[in-house]
Write a structure and sequence with these properties.
Elements: E1 2-8, E2 14-20, E3 25-28, H1 40-50, H2 57-74, H3 76-79, E4 86-89, E5 93-96, H4 99-115
Helix pairs in contact: 1-2, 2-4
Amino acid sequence: MEFIVAGYDADQSPHIYRIAKPDWAIQEYKTPYGQGGSGRKSVLNTFEQGYRSNMTLSEGNVLAVDAMKEACKASPDSVGGKIRLWNMDPSLGVTKFRPADVRKLALKMKLIRFLV
């Protein structure tokens, strides 16, 4: 079990932390993205290759879905449909995607990959 905690401090600087068993140690990410779960290495690799600081929200969403796909490929037995996606924005705060929105993005990404 683990938690990803994200938000902004008083001067609008983003912070992302991972808190995980067995000792519940707190790890602060030094990147503007965080990941967790059994597929986190695949997610990290995808973000390291595709993230740009000037990405639009839409581009970031596509990258996140691509990262989820890679995580599912790398660890198909442990995913179990428990995919969560959040966006962080200084003016909007942290917003969670509804499961239907995550499915819609995943389907769209799958179509893009097969049509290209």
